[in-house]
Amino acid sequence: MLTRAKLTPFDFALYATVVLAWGFAWIGIHFQVGVVAPDVSVMWRFLAAGPIMLAIAALRGDRMRYGLREHGMFALLGCLMFSLNFLLYYHAAESLPSGLLSIVFSLASFFNVWLGALLLGAPIDRRVVAGGVLGVIGMCALFYPQLVGHSFPRGALIAFGLTIAGTLAFCFGNMVSATLTKRKIPVFAATGYAMLYGAASVGLYAAANGHTFTIEWTMPYLVGLAYLALIGSVVAFACYLTLLGRIGADRAAYATVLGPVLALAVSTVVENFQWTAIAALGLVAVIAGNVLVLRPVRK
Hints:
The protein has helices at 9-30, 38-60, 68-92, 98-105, 108-120, 126-142, 144-149, 156-182, 187-208, 219-247, 249-252, 255-270, 277-294. It has 299 residues and is mainly α. It has one domain (22-294). The longest helix has 29 residues, at 219-247. The N and C termini lie close together (6 Å).
């Protein structure tokens, strides 16, 4: 039987931080779409987060100079995780509610298992797969009323396709980050450079489409941008990528399944989510799947 290392208190702290940070991020993204083009909002987010990451890396005494090969990896990570992933999700947020976005993003727990096995030769833990199944089923049950009663706007199916593609981009970025971790490249430095490369690539995309580099000077937009840049990007990604290197992409990505539970709680207050018996059973399934994934396997 496959034996997985027991998670330490530090691992649980990292995991909880990611869940909290990303759980509130879905509402933040909701306030980013509208006046400002989605690609421009993504650029502002990581143009602010990248230098902060690099400053933290410098204060920690991390190595800051790298060769072309490493910068090529940073650029690939930035284009996948901090450009394409978010660009697709921000565009999808124009047509779909945040709850549905979070459900699709939870599929990262599945994709990471199989991509890790195919690209990195990582072992597949059957309990992780089973926990991911429980989690996604639970998330679908949580949002069952929205899935059944929601009147889909034009282009909703395209938006679903965008979220699937965005999740795959995120997961391929996970594989790149895991490779950097194996090469002993510090998380803060790698992530900071990757964020700047991501901001540059999405900025070029915005310029090519003739979008104006503006900011919406309203409190919801500015607060959302500050939260997404500082908490949803700097704090969350530093913790998530550290966790990924410590416990593996499959178990780390389960935060994308549990995180929407917090998003649901926020939606209850902000978007008046209506609880049902099916939704309650879904919450139980998510928690059960979380326990199954995080519990260590014994010989």
